[in-house]
Amino acid sequence: MIIVIMGVSGSGKTTIGQLLEKKMSYVFIDADDYHSDKNKLKMINNVALNQEDREPWLKSLRILLDKYIENKKGLILACSALSKDSRSVLGTNRIEIHLVYLKGSKSLIKKRMVNRNHFMPSSLLDSQFLELSEPTNALVIDINQKPSQLATQIHNHIQL
Description:
Elements (H helix, E strand, L loop, with lengths): L1 E5 L6 H12 L2 E4 L6 H8 L6 H20 L4 E4 L5 H7 L6 E7 L2 H9 L10 H7 L7 E4 L4 H13 L1
């Protein structure tokens, strides 16, 4: 089984993914680790990525997802997957994939982003929300709870 945790930057994808990794003994991968240096540099310099920038990154993640599905291994992937196009490249509509959308207000997420050390600056948050197309086929989780509660909620839902 594959769990793809999606949402805008600062929504808690990595934190929740790491907590689920401990609960489920699945492999956790942060899609941010697969960004090219060019993409990271753009974000550091307050330039939002476009779909052309994201395409090679998403295709490499799709290959990763395909391998885990083929080998019937458990994987948790933290990936923004903001647009329908991005989710289509990843193939999140497959039966083997559980899509989890971490949803929160812009003000809460901005507050979180200011207090972290990451290549994605809070100044790009507006572009993330502009890119976001909320999924219709996902477990939607309100992030106004403690991370441990969110991870338990996701785990319990997936175990059903």
